[in-house]
Write a structure and sequence with these properties.
This protein is 30% helix and 28% strand. With 309 residues, it is α/β, with parallel strands linked by helices. The protein folds into two domains: 145 residues, FAD/NAD(P)-binding domain, CATH 3.50.50; 125 residues, FAD/NAD(P)-binding domain, CATH 3.50.50.60. The strands form four sheets. The protein has a six-stranded mixed beta sheet. Strands 8-15-9-10-11 form a five-stranded parallel beta sheet. Helix 3 runs antiparallel to helix 5. The two termini are 14 Å apart.
Amino acid sequence: MSNAQVVYDYDLVVIGAGPGGYVAAIRAGQLGLKCLLIEKDQIGGVCLNVGCIPSKSLIHQASVFSKRKELMAMGCDVNDAGFDYSKVFNASRQTVSRLNKGVTALLKKNGVTCVFGQAVLQNEHTVIIKQQDGEQTASGKNILLATGSSPRELAGFPIDEERILSSSGILLMQKLPASLIILGAGAIGMEFAYIMSSFGVKVSVVEMESRVLPYEDSDSAAVIANQLSRQGVDIFCGHKASELASVDQLLLTIQDKDGQTKQLQAEKMLIAIGRVPNTAGLGLEKLNVKLDENGYVQTNSFGKSSVDS
């Protein structure tokens, strides 16, 4: 029987309800396709729940808070003695909740079926959805992978979301530490260096490359580095983290290219050294879906994998 004669449960099965997945599912619904959206955690994915959306809320609030000095320079009396970071956190979560409800409503409006669970590909057209109370199977004429990414971990620096944080953990932190070491001066590291230092946290940034934001425009990176330095952020470029001790405080030994070492001390540490694709555990290898050396699905110019469906 040819594919044209096969009856599938759905025209499109989307795995992952982040910005790639939910937008595709909504558009499929708008085009009249019967669509299933599978998500193992929360609608909106990392970006909406523990990524770009809450971080931009924190950046905005950090900017507002830092402007109190400008008001004081104008002669205004500004008393920040009652400052409570938990209120900043709550405001960011309210933004997340509002947008989450909006996306959920759009999915419903466009007839998208949402199911929560871990998706595993059985074949080119069939997905097993593993849930706490069992599992179910769904078939689709086409399957779209939109599983996103997770924070990259660093050997010897285990993320516990208590003292050693990922980007998700620091976004869900409700109390400011007195001091923070950030490993990695990419976009995520620089965002949190700005946020935390604006709220009075003593921040140190460690980056292996010769400058901050090493993959971005060098002139823009220099402006950001200068601004953060003026805010009191200590930036150590051309250094790598070599050893971590933990007693009352975290004690990090860093080493430059000449082998010279120094020690940094802080209450907490953020690991911000990039992200890795969420392609493990999906059953891709069984179907011979080609991945690159970093675990990303290899696709052609149309975003199609090596396996026809």
